[in-house]
Amino acid sequence: MLKHLLVENYALIEKLDISLTQGLTVITGETGAGKSILLGALALILGQRADTQVLMHKDRKCIVEGTFDLEQIAIQELFEKHQLDYDRLTIFRREINPQGKSRAFINDTPVNLSVMKEVAERLIDIHSQHQTLLIGESSFQFDVVDSFAGNLESVQAFRVAYGQWQKLSKTLQNLEVQEKRSRTELDYFRFQFDELDKARINPAEYQQIEGELEILRHAEEIKLNLEKAAFIIGTADINVLSGLNESLQLLRPLARYNEKYRQLMERFESVMIEIKDLHADLESQAEEVTHDPARATELQQRIDLLNKLLLKHSASSMEELESIRNHYQQKILAIDSLEEEINQLRKELDSKRQDLFIQAEKISKRRRQSIPEMEKEVTALLRQLGMPGASFQIAQKPIDGMNANGIDQLSFLFCANPGGKPSEIARVASGGELSRLMLSIKSMISQRNLLPTIIFDEIDSGISGETATRVANILESIACNMQVITITHLPQIASRGRSHLLVYKIIEQGRAHTAIKNIHNGDRILEVAKMLGGEKPTEVMLATARELIFNTQKN
């Protein structure tokens, strides 16, 4: 419940500091005194957006602070979800500075407005006159029925699962589009890959082929020169080996005479060995070189193919060409795996869809079982509110497929006159009828709703007399189960409050301010009497006010 409210520098409010109690609290005051302004300030700590227009003094910040007692509501899991400190007395605070920057806090922890709104929606419900339009909206009708049927947690779980299913469906659609587009490219990828794969790309091959081909192109020249060099060294009439051997034979006898001669002999021996090796290598390599036009043609065709592939794929090296081949291979594998992923996702979606239908059928069944009792209770409440011939029905029809609300279509049907056929509310209900119908619905679900506080902003609009007394009875009944705060112009309702707040306007230094105070005893009697008979109530009006308040306190 809301225990305390502090408002500073908001619209016509300089500063308000009020405490609230359990049960029914009534707020009264003249038109224009600022009663609805108070609700506007309260809406700030419930997550509503605001700007500098709300500042009374443009050079000072606006502060709205509400203290809530959370003892009667299980909300710890929501605090844990958002990593907030949980206290039985929790403080919601909003600040709006002159530059328009807004800050929000829960127990001194900064939060964004979406978090503040999510938590606040579990604590308080503000029902204003314009909210009666919600009664014709499908989302509100589902919330009402599911609240009465005890479906709220099941519906929330269903919507989470449905959202996940929709997300998976979107993923599948994207994958199918991608797969379809990829299929048109698959033949191209396969052709490119097969061409490169058949070419047996080897990064080291190109230079090897070039080297071998260069030898084959000049085989005759290479062979001739190698043979000639070998001939000169070891076969010609005057050859290198013969000359060296003859010189070596002349030096050997001299080696015994002098160390220098011996070293010369050894050097000649070393040269002889090297020259013999050179001669053998020349002869061997000359034999290896053959004129092979067929092999040259084969190598030329191979290098032409590689050059063609390099040019076709704009590759600068064989390494890059090999990388391109691998890229096409990965593309092909990705398309094949995409098909497998799509098949698995389809199976998963089918399974989740079946689970969703099972959940939706259970929700639908509980709705169907609850609707007759709902219709009965709302119709009975309407009769208490001076509409004896009114009838209220809820039409539940199946839909094709499924949506976030399950497999149902709901419509609230209403008829104010006896014997008439109920039709959709938006078409047949007047403003006053909508107010009474909304009050009946709020009263019906209040005992089943976990909200600790509900605020009515002039729910009594357009009613009077005995109907006003019945509205007061219903508000009093709701207040037995939760904190009820109502703004009212009717003495029948004002007299029922466990506490009574008076909103009034004061003029200081030529400027209007809204103030509020908790009134008791004589002040309260006077205020109710004014509501009965004007600014200067008679003794009769005062006596009537006294009796209304006395009877309430007695009851």
Shape: elongated
**N→C terminal distance:** 23 Å
Q: What is the CATH topology descriptor of the domain at 1-123 and 451-518?
A: Rossmann fold
* CATH superfamily label of the domain at 1-123 and 451-518: P-loop containing nucleotide triphosphate hydrolases
Mean of the pLDDT scores? 84
Extended strand count = 15
Question: What can you tell me about this protein's structure?
Answer:
The protein has 555 residues and is α/β, with parallel strands linked by helices. Among the domains are: 1-123 and 451-518, Rossmann fold; 204-316; 521-555, no CATH class. It has 17 helices and 15 strands. It has helices at residues 35-44, 76-81, 113-120, 138-149, 152-198, 205-217, 219-234, 240-251, 259-288, 293-312, 318-384, 425-428, 431-446, 465-478, 491-494, 521-533, 539-554; strands at 2-10, 13-19, 24-28, 62-69, 89-96, 102-106, 109-111, 124-127, 391-403, 406-415, 423-424, 453-457, 483-487, 499-508, 511-518. A 6-stranded antiparallel beta sheet has the order 2-1-4-5-6-7. It has a 6-stranded mixed beta sheet with strand order 8-12-13-3-14-15. Strands 9-10-11 form a 3-stranded antiparallel beta sheet. Helix 7 (219-234) packs antiparallel against helix 9. The longest helix has 67 residues, at 318-384. It is elongated, with a radius of gyration of 48 Å. 27% of the residues are buried.
